Each structure stands twice: as structure tokens, then as C-alpha cells.
Amino acid sequence: xxxxxxxxxxxxxxxxxxxxxxxxxxxxxxxxxVLTERSGRINLGLEGTLVFGAMAAYAVAFHSGSxxxxxxxxxxxxxxxxxxxxxxxxxPRVNDIAxxxxxxxLGTGLAFFYGTPYVQPVAPHLPAIPFGNWxxxxxxxxxxxxxxxxxxxxxxxxxxxxxxxxxxxxLMLRVVGDSTDAARAMGLRPNRIRALATAAxxxxxxxxxxxxxxxxxxxxxxxxxxxxxxxxVALVIFARWSPINCFWAALLFGGAGALGPALQSVGITxxxxxxxxxxxxxxxxxxxxxxxxxxxxxGAPGELSITK
Length: 308
Fold this sequence. Notes:
Radius of gyration: 19 Å
Strand content: under 5%
Number of strands: 2
Distance between the termini: 47 Å
Number of domains: 1
Number of helices: 14
CATH class: Mainly Alpha
CATH architecture: Orthogonal Bundle
Helix content: 55-70%
Structural class: mainly alpha
Shape: globular
């Protein structure tokens, strides 16, 4: 984005616009991981789900001519990966972290294998709402061009926060996540609930992948995710397993991701690679800040591996 027409005001404007664009995959993956971890399970395989969802969305959108068909395909593939993770982790003496890493490698490997024919073809993109049409400045118009999936993600965060707090399904999820014994005493089936929660979380991650390939950056390539699926897991800990906090944390991570392009657009090129490394530096800082025994488990579901 060229900000020379509006001077240094273009930097915060570009960061704002970039935060909205870059934060959307973080938001969907983190919401999916909140749902999974609230049930007492960690899914580190969401990086693979994100990449495979991006590939599936792009391929289906290309062949069908519909971006929304691509989003649906990505959600379905993500749910399949999540369900597979949930079913395997329901077996005795199976470690959910190890299975998550294995499925991450599986998802990325399958995406690279099946996605090779779709590197060059152009698929239809998802629509965006032009909130900046009131301005004649092209930079303002570009910054306020918001994809519909971002708005849907805000609504999803609010809905999930309400559901976890005020619905029977939310209560069941929280009970299963806090104590398997208490859940069984109430007549619940923890393994089934965790498998369904992991499948739903995988579907959210798949939608995040669809956003990557069908809107921003809007193409399919093997390095499309840049580790966002793994960073989103750290984001969930930083957000203290709260869907609303995930939204704000996703914006923070998105703003960090937009910092490099925003500074470069006004001619600041010293430390170029450091600017682009801001999301990874932020992730490292979050992990360090939450690594103490008292901070890391504050608000965490009792059945999570990090609390045992």
C-alpha cells in the first residue's frame, strides 16, 4: 500500500487495515482451539488443518467457480481432520500433543502433494465490504475494505462466549474440560464430547485456511500459512481461553504481522527482516510471559495436558 499521499498517517492506517486482514486466520484458528481446549484437549495439528483447508478451498473454488463452495469444503476437511484427531486421542494411552504434531505433518504433506496443480490457476475470491467508500483517499478505501469472514468471526466470538457461559452445551463442554470424573458422574460421555469439540475446532481452522487462499493473500502456495496455526495456539493461552480475548489478541497479532509492510510503504527499510519477524517475536514474548507455573495455568481447563 502506497502511503506517500497522506504521509506518516499512512503507517497507523496501514497497520489498522493490515491488522484486520492478517488477524482473520488467527481469529478462526484460535476460536477453534478455544473450543477444543475447553473440552480438555490440545490440538497442535491445526497448522496442518489450516494449510490443507487453504488448498482444499482454492481447489474447490477453482473447479466450481464459487468461493463459498471453497469455504464449505475447507470447513468440511477441517472437521474431518479434527474428528480424526479426536477419535485417535480417545484411545487408551494416546498423547494428544504427539497426535497433533503427527496430523500437522500429515495435513501439510497432503496439501503440498495435492495442491501442486493449483499454484498457477486463479480461483474466485471472497467478497469484501467497502467501508471506506466515504473517502476519496485510495489508502483509506483499501484499509477499510473488510472481508465478510472477519465480520462473521466477530459474531462467532460473541456467540461462542455466550454459549460457553449460558447454554447447556457450554456447561457440558466446561464440565468435561475441567473434570472427566465429574462429567461421567453427570452421565456425560467425555470422549464423544471432546471428539465433537475437536471436529468443530478443526472446521474453524479450515475456514481460516480458506480465507488465506481466497482473500488474503488470495492465492495458493506451500508457504501460505507461515506458522499461523501454531502461533494461534500460543494466542489461546495469552487470551486465557476466552473467545472475546481471542478477538483482541488476534488483532494484536495481525497488527504485528502488518508492521513490516506498513513501515516499508513509507520508505523505512532498515531492519526489514526484523519488521516481518514481529509476529514470531510477539509469539515468543507471549510464551515467555505465560511460562511461569502460576500464569500458564490461570483459567486453564483442568484436563489439559499443560495443567498436569
